[in-house]
What we know:
The protein is α+β, with helices and mostly antiparallel strands and 133 residues long. Helices cover 42% and strands 20% of the residues. Residues 53, 58, 62, 92, 110-111, 113, 116 line the site of adenosine-3',5'-cyclic-monophosphate.
Amino acid sequence: xxxxxxxxxxxxxxxxxxxxxxxxxxxxxxxxxxxxxxxxxxxxxxxxxxxxxxxxxxxxxxxxxxxxxxxxxxxxxxxxxxxxxxxxxxxxxxxxxxxxxxxxxxxxxxxxxxxxxxxxxxxxxxxxxxxxx
Length: 133
Ligand code: CMP
């Protein structure tokens, strides 16, 4: 079994599309939601998660955005949870995200792309600790 972290970001919460996004994960028969938590990140918590992007051109905007309001942190498990979840989310840039994916449906730009998902087993372990201890 793999375990992965999903964030439903503040843009999705503000636009009230959280239930639609959760439905896409719940409808996937190989995936199971284990934990779900509504929280607003402090700068310090956001840095624990996104610190690896420090110095990149989009970093300041990313930090401002991710701390701008409540988000949902979700632990999802499944045999191929990391790849399955990333397939459902679609590409980081919604303009190239496959039709029907979460980002193709709901994201408005690369910087406002409604979801985050772990990209590897190692990232998932690290990121789950940040959000669930
Ligand atoms: P996420 O999967 O949450 O990981 C880092 C985030 O930075 C990413 O989604 C985007 O919202 C944002 N971002 C902005 N520009 C870029 C970029 N050029 N490459 C990767 N991520 C970017």
